[in-house]
Amino acid sequence: MSEAALPPTRIALVGNPNTGKTALFNALTGGRQKVANYAGVTVERKEGFLTTPGGRRLSVLDLPGTYSLRARSPDEVVTRDVVLGRLDGETAPDVVVAVADATNLRLVLRLILELKAVGRPMVLALNMYDIAQRQGLRIDLEGLGRELGCPIVTTVATRKRGITELAEQVDALVESGALATDNAWHEPSAAEIRSAHREAQRLLKAYVRPPERPDTLTGRIDAVLLHPVAGLVILLALLFLMFQAVFTWAGPPADAIEGGVAWLGGLAGEWLPDGLIRSLVVDGLFAGVGSVLVFLPQILVLFLFIILLEDLGYMARAAFLMDRIMGGAGLHGRAFIPLLSSFACAIPGVMSARVIDQKRDRMTTILVAPLMTCSARIPVYTLIIGAFIPDRTVGPGLNLQGLVMFGLYAAGIVSALAVSFVIRKVFWRGAVEPFLMELPTYKLPSLESVLRNLWLRAEIFISRAGRIILPLMVLVWVLSTFPGPPPGATDPAIDYSFAGIIGQALQPLFAPIGFNWQMVVALIPGFAAREVAVAALGTVYAVGDAEANVGALGARLAEHWSLATGLSFLAWYVFAPQCAATLGVVKRETNSWGWTAVMFVYMVALAYLASFVVYHTAVALGAG
Amino acid sequence: MHETVGAPVAPAEEGASAEGLVRLSQARPGDRGVIADVRADHATAHAVDVHELERRLLEFGFVEGAAFEVLHQGLFGADPIAVKLDDMRVALRRRDAADVWVRLEAAR
User: Fold this and answer.
1) Longest dimension (CA), chain A
2) Which of A283, A293, A347, A426 reaches 20 to 30 Å from A270, CA-CA?
3) Which residues pair with B84 in a beta bridge?
């Protein structure tokens, strides 16, 4: 019988947020990690493996941070259910490792008392012990361990100190045959929470001597960063920098990816015989892969900022500063990062809504994120504005075209706030979640953990989002390609395809908002990504290489469309969910076709309504 | 038990009670003191019931006897507030802070 055949001993890391739990997880398991989702929920399941000095194989679960086993968010429900052994597909851990920030013990002691009641063998890891020592904080480890009835190990996860000792303690605990006792945990009442606080207070008094040199750095930094005026100015400057970086840093690699994929597609095209297979590979698969991967640089730059700010401890401050502004529309302070990200692209925006721990607030944020004007709308706006809005000055420094562009951005922001307000009224019946948030002490992020986290985001985006986005891209290709044109056809091939047939069939529906059938046909391939509409309009109006030839296409559109139709098309693009990739990511992040459908339907409805109002107003004013 | 702390009987609209307690939602930056009573009694539309809000406040360390100091407030409507609670910092909205009654230390 070989050692390796035995199932590994399962341990679970449990602790408050901001205690360095994930750093400890990384230090324990190194690169041997796998990330998946818990069955049926969108909570990330991070598992890693290691072999202890005693030769025992351990599987380590990094559970979401929590202040209580009472579980208020989906993440915390997972923590509770794993610890209690209640979660489908998960066995209760053999050993619970409680992770505590040694400099901030009060709240975690109360959590540890709850964990004690669960009855699983437990080890307490006092993390960030170096900071505690530097502050002159003294902890009577032996006494505290005796009272809590569990071994205590001091660790500095970021420097990998105390990791071996922790593994040895787990080993010793399993070796000694410590078994789980009966679970005596139940959801504590307010009175029980109070009495646990008193017990924690007693333990602190008896075994912990307050720091001789308490941390004053956080207070001094906060005096600036949380200053009502200076704090907001610094936040805006940071956001500006982040925005700039997304566009400037991500531009060249995005172009390189686009070029590289197109080159590979061309190469593959040369190998394949002319015909359907080649069209599928080049126009369907390669163009599909390219249109997904091209978002990757933007996503990485954005997440680099988000991870850095989160690890520094700044994100909670930003949420504090923005809470009142977001709160007016019924959004959580933390919603502003996802919404801001959505100006670049809704995909990283929707993904970064993970920073919001309340489910309702997170759903609202995801639902309105695609209303922010993403960079893919810019080519469409530029084309239509160039074709229909005269380039003239309407005031000092005010250009009419620029003004319209600004109006389109403003329409996106205002509608996002309005829609979130309505969502709160309709779906959450006006209820406002309490806003309680720890402002953690500032810490220097570790390079290793930032890079690991960034890699994780990239992996998740490519593998899982790709699984949904790619098939949608291929579907759009099928619709625009089949059936092929009859021999001797003179009109563009797309007119004869399913897209053409659907477009012409749907045209009566779009007639009230001033769309002709060519526009409706262009909307179908334009569903792959917003900017594809430019190329699609080029195809239906037979303007070759429309993206490089916007002027010619614009002139062609101005001949065929009235001003009212042009404005109606702009209004459509402010609201319409013309992006299969976003819908794919929303499905993944909400884990629900229902919510994805809600988003699709409300956006189509808004787009139709806006176009209808714009078209008829313009016609009434004589622009028909 | 918090019932023994001498729960204030002031109606929800009023800021101060007979025992000289005030709601944390009335405190300004620089105010410090001790938390005297945590008792959710709000009438506004909350996503959670009063008992749940009380337990959440308690879990974040807003518990009778804890020392606090209001550190910062937001620019608009002076909301939310950042509070130093023993050795940690917590941000909360004034509407949630209304359920925490405090005894203020005399002005420094």
Assistant:
1) 93
2) A293
3) B69, B89
Q: Which amino acid is residue A59, in one-letter code? A: S
Task: Using only the alpha carbons of chain B, give its radius of gyration.
Answer: 13
Does residue B28 belong to the interface with chain A, where contact is any CB pair within 8 Å? no
Residue with tokens 């960034």: A454
Task: Render pLDDT for A220-271 as a digit per residue (tens, 0 to 9).
Answer: 999 999 999 999 999 988 877 876 777 678 778 888 887 888 888 888 888 8
Question: What's the longest Cα–Cα distance across chain B?
Answer: 38
Q: Which residues of A touch B46 (CB under 8 A)?
A: 431-434
Enumerate the β-bridge partners of residue A432: B46
Helices (H), ranges, A33-152:
74-83, 106-118, 129-134, 141-148
pTM assigned to the model: 0.79
Chain B residues lying within 8 Å of A227, measured CB to CB: 72
Within an 8 Å CB–CB cutoff, is residue A427 touching chain B? no
Instruction: Give the Cα separation of A574 and A489 in Å (integer).
Output: 35
Q: Are strands A393-395 and A398-399 parallel, antiparallel or unpaired?
A: antiparallel
Instruction: Dump pLDDT digits (tens) for A553-578.
Output: 888 888 889 999 999 999 999 999 98
Complex ipTM: 0.83
Which of A 350-369 lie inside 8 A of B, CB atoms? 360
Q: Which tokens go with A621?
A: 């004013």
Distance of alpha carbon A13 from alpha carbon A95, whole angstroms: 9
Interface of B with A in 33-52 (CB under 8 A): 44-48, 51
pLDDT band at A100 (very low <50, low <70, confident <90, very high): very high
Facing residue for B80 by CB, picked from A193, A435, A440:
A435
Output phi, psi for A79, to 5 deg: -55, -50
C-alpha distances out from residue A44 to A78, A79, A460, A594, Å:
10, 11, 11, 21
Q: How far apart are CA A299 and CA A344, in angstroms?
A: 9
Check pLDDT > 80 for residue A7. yes
Query: How near does any CA of chain B get to the CA of A81, in Å?
Result: 19
Average pLDDT, chain A: 85
Alpha-carbon distance of A109 to A112, in angstroms, equals: 5
Q: Is the C-alpha dihedral spanning A332, B73, B31, A134 positive or negative?
A: positive
Contact residues for B28 (Cβ-Cβ < 8 A; gap 6+): B70, B73, B78
- Contact yes or no for B34/B22 (Cβ under 8 A): no
Instruction: Evaluate whether A15 touches A98 at the Cβ level (below 8 Å).
Output: yes
CA A225/CA A227 separation, integer angstroms: 6
- How many helices (H) does chain B have, and how many strands (E)? 2, 6
Q: A201 by DSSP, 3-state: which?
A: helix
In degrees and rounded to multiples of 5, residue A345 shows phi and psi of -170, 135
- pLDDT per position in chain B (108 positions), as tens? 344 444 444 444 455 565 788 999 999 999 999 999 998 776 555 667 778 888 889 999 999 999 999 999 999 888 899 999 988 899 999 988 998 999 998 754
A436 and B79 in contact by Cβ < 8 A? no
**14-43 in A: which are within 8 Å (CB) of B?**
none
